[in-house]
Amino acid sequence: MAPHAQPMAPATRPPDPPDPREPSQGQDDDTDANSDTDPDQPTALPAPTPILPRDLVRLFQCQICSLPLREPVCLPCGKSMCRRCLPQTHLRTNISYPDLPGRLEGFRCPFPDCGKEHAVEDCAVDVILNKVSQQLKEEIDLRRSLAATAGVFTRIYMQDPWAIAGVASLRDEDGSSQVFDGGKIVATYTLAEDGDLKYQADISYQGARSLSDGEDDIINDEHIAAKAQEMTRAEMDCQVCYALFCDPFTTACGHTFCRSCLHRVLDHSRYCPICRRQLAINPLLNHTSCPSNQTLNQIINSFWSDDAKARKEAVAAESASQLEDLNFPLFVCTLAFPRMPTFLHVFEPRYRLLIRRALEGDRTFGMVLPRLSMVHGQTEFLELGTMLRIVNVQYYPDGRSLIETIGVSRFRVLRHGYLDGYIVGKVERVDDVSLEEEESMEAAEAVPQTTSERPIIDDGNQAEESSEPHPEHPPEHPPAPITSADIETMSTQSLMEFTTSFVTRMRAQGVPWLTERLLSIYGEHPNDAAIFPWWFASMLPVKDLEKYRLLGTSSVRERLKICCSWIIEWEASRWMELMSSRPGLSATAQSSS
């Protein structure tokens, strides 16, 4: 934002030609509000946090077209612009996950400090900003009409940016001026509506004539600012905590919440609390990857700076108190994954107490994997774990219980202590990157492959399609696994197809880890790439420490690549078993190599 000078008419400016609407007397240079207002007159509305008329109008200007915001959208980078100013869209390439119609088209962000590719689906109209912008326009239209009737107007001069910066102007002529109905706020807004006020431009004013008592309530800039504050404040409460927005985050559906409030909501549901639209990926607390709504932040800090400061201090104090408390119970037993069931046979007194307290509370606790070997200074468990929610309990007469749980989310243990024999800790949630970053990751890594270049993905159906042996792939040879290098350059959808085809092939072969009993517990393999790695890790007989790697990942693509690496190792081990069990085949392979 350009630096502001105190708005006033330059002293060296020659007099302007008379304007038909200009009064013959009563003009004076005014730098802020009307100076002739009676200070003892009662004010109908509370005074807002002091804000210059130019700054108020700038809050509601589009940074692209400089016109007042119309149908504003909040981009994933946190910046706002008119919907009509969105750049021309194009078909996105090298992106296969998530394969949704609304994400096929995108555009390059027009803001130089971003420049990322945004999906059209992520740019819905900002519900709150759209409403307050429309309310301000209606109020300005009313005040402009009243000012025209009362004959009140303001002259606006465009300020030279060189002069504002303290550099002598390069132009010989003086800046132009225009006259508009109303006080400074109304006149400035009208100038922006006419397209003559750039977002970064600054202006100065020459004030209107003195106002009568009746006109003061409807024309005075302080009253207009207070009215704008009052209208806007009614929309600035979070619909979760019902308090003033603190760190407002706008979802892809256009609804805004406090970041911390939305985070708590998504612990229990993947749907927007207002419109119930599914939210693909939880927002991070990391402001770099998921920025806040910058325009709403500016409005809040400009209109209610004291309230905003108090809210931030309250939220910070609450967070600090939570950091001091070791209040999350930890069950050190096994490896658990989000969205997957975990069954526990609880018999130790300390864990019976943990489960009882969890049932009396929100029914959640943490599951962490014990450390097999410890050195001095290490904890007895690994730092990453999964929050579990109890869904069913079966008690036995001797006090034991069988607990059925479902994985909710991942966490990292920051500190821990002991309470009545079991471990309690302070944890922080572990989330995936934003959906936009997920797509960018795939676009940067994936290489478009032709049919001839694509790694062979055998789904087990070749033997059914033809009973004749293929000369290049004899039936006694298992399908050749793809390499680790292939995994890095495959699309996310190809990674998913490779893993699911492996499951289909293994099930056809009747492997013991895909029995009907296990499938009745974990279900058939999910088609959602976000869930599949958790299911696959729950089923595949791989060491827990290897599966533990999934808990530290931050993207669906990263987890699928780990699953594919397991398949490569599995296929390689089976190939070696086949080679060792058939000496003649081994000799043939060695001679051919």
TrEMBL record:
InterPro entries: Lon_prtase_N, Lon_prtase_N_sf, PUA-like_sf, Znf_RING, Znf_RING/FYVE/PHD, Znf_RING_CS
Record keyword Iron present: no
Comp. bias intervals (Acidic residues): 27-39
CDD domains the UniProt entry points to: RING-HC_LONFs_rpt2
Domain Lon N-terminal: 325-571
PROSITE patterns: LON_N, ZF_RING_1, ZF_RING_2
Basic and acidic residues: bias regions: 467-476
Residue intervals of the RING-type domain: 238-276
Alphabetical list of Pfam families matching this protein: LON_substr_bdg, zf-C3HC4_2
Leader sequence residues: none
Keywords (A to Z) from UniProt: Metal-binding, Zinc, Zinc-finger
GO terms for MF: zinc ion binding
Annotated spans, Disordered: 1-50, 435-484
Protein's name in the database: PUA-like domain-containing protein
UniProt source species: Dactylonectria macrodidyma
